[in-house]
Automatic annotation (TrEMBL):
Its EC number is 1.14.14.145. Heme binds at C451. The keyword Acyltransferase does not apply. CDD domains: CYP86A. Pfam families: p450. It comes from Helianthus annuus. Its cofactor is heme. This is Abieta-7,13-dien-18-ol hydroxylase. Belongs to the cytochrome P450 family. The lineage of its organism: Eukaryota, Viridiplantae, Streptophyta, Embryophyta, Tracheophyta. Keywords: Heme, Iron, Membrane, Metal-binding, Oxidoreductase, Transmembrane, Transmembrane helix. InterPro entries: Cyt_P450, Cyt_P450_E_grp-I, Cyt_P450_sf. One of its GO terms (molecular function) is abieta-7,13-dien-18-ol hydroxylase activity. The chain crosses the membrane at residues 12-28.
Amino acid sequence: MAVSVDLLSNPIFVLGSFLVLFIFHNYIHKEPQHGKKYHPTATTLLQPLINYKKLHDYMTSLAIRYKTYRVLSPFHGMIYTTDPVNVEYMLKTNFNNYGKGYYLPSVTSDLLGEGIFTVDGDKWREQRKVASQEFSTKILRDYSSVTFRNNTIKLGEILSQAADSNQIIDINDLFMKLTMDSIFKVGFGIDLDNLGGNEEGVRFSLAFDDANNLIYKRFYDPSWRIKKFFNIGMEAELKTNLKIVDDFVYKLIQTKIEQMQMSKDESLFKKDDILSRFVEVHHNNPKYLRDIILNFVLAGKDPIAISMSWLIYELCKHPEIQEKVAKEILEALNMKNEEITDVADFMARVSDSALEKMPYLHAALSESIRLYPALPMDPKVSFTDDVLPDGCNVNKGDVVTYMPYAMGRMKYIWGDDALEFKPERWLDQDGCYRPESPFKFTAFQAGPRTCLGRDFAYRHLKIIASVVLGCFAFKLRNEKEVMSYRLSINVHVEAPLQVYVSRRSVFQNP
Ligand code: HEM
Ligand SMILES: *[C@@H]1O[C@H](CO)[C@@H](O)[C@H](O)[C@H]1NC(C)=O
């Protein structure tokens, strides 16, 4: 990725921000009013900027001292919370008071448009309704399962080759390609074939991921509007990437609409992908179709890849847990003493009922998501003056952020072993999976705006994991390596996740 200057590692930018903060703080910041109780101010905006590479851990260290705290900012009040009581209040009890507001959509609209992630109120309600109907259909369930199965077989073939030639692979890169291919296919009905190295698919995917990263940089660079106006620096780069994305997507939409209008016989073109299903209703609004489906792609692909990567990483750090997961998978598939030579054969055994018999794998996935929630922080704007259940005040316009990443590391929520990777915490005495309160395990948000793709995500994570971990064993290239995250909207692994892969004994060389 060829991003221009990394602003935050630029001392002039950091010093400049400090100066601006210092000057403006005294004039603009609305000091908490007398007589009202506010959360303790833990730091100023400058510290997170300086600590931005380790931002989530820095915010976690503050949360160990204060469950909920303020960060002094010249722009608006900033409140950060890990307290399940406050989280339940903002996401459910007083849901209507906490939304996206105007700021976030104004920064992200070039990529996300008016998709479900950026809107509040009636616009959100309408999309939520349509999307949740879509998610509950058997068509989507079946079509997406077949898609993930097909692509996981492709991944398995790549892993087999790597195992046979003792090659080191970047498993994170492969998961990113797998989920891009799969989610795009479910969304648009098109095979990008990143896993197979298709040039056009790879070009689109790179542009999409770069656009996503560049949009995120806007949050840290107040001058982005000026750069956009003059089309310079990262904004010029963003524009190029957005054009590649839009050209590609609008062409698909146009083709689909034309097919639809030309064909009298519906069954000839009617497909199960989401675009085909939406074109029937919204064929005269390509922009709306683009927004809906790109939001879907964005919602689905990175979180699934991220959860798989961190799972593999933790299982490499805990080989005994990796063995236990593999054992459960092979038992659920009734394959203790058989040999298998083909990933497709193996996949054919992974039935829905077999997936139900993998509570330990389910627990390991939840553990990966607890410690590495795809969305580490989720900010909401308070639309009115309010008081949180802990008795502290929130002013109109304050941004209240709940922090799934920090929450996963709080001993007061998870006990003294909060930092440990321990699937057992999700199982009861009989080994059955025991869900947690969504106000403690906030990775999927909670309340009316809970992630719509949670069941979808678990199903597909289990399809991928059962084959990947049932057929293969993994070891980190460098067993001492401690992997951190890369700062972006999601907690991606910081560096290539380089692993050795070997075949498990049930899965022998042909
Ligand atoms: C491990 C996987 C996943 C995690 C941790 C996750 C997490 C989240 C979170 C935190 C939100 C709330 C974001 C916000 O504030 O607006 C959300 C919303 C959403 N997610 Fe997921 N997600 C995952 C997978 C998926 C998948 C696979 C899909 C679809 C294919 C999906 C679809 C959605 C949609 C449509 C929303 C918007 C809901 C709304 O605003 O009403 N998610 N997800
Ligand atoms: C999955 O693979 C099978 C066999 O190669 C193929 O017939 C089918 O069309 C594929 N389905 C999807 C949704 O990719």
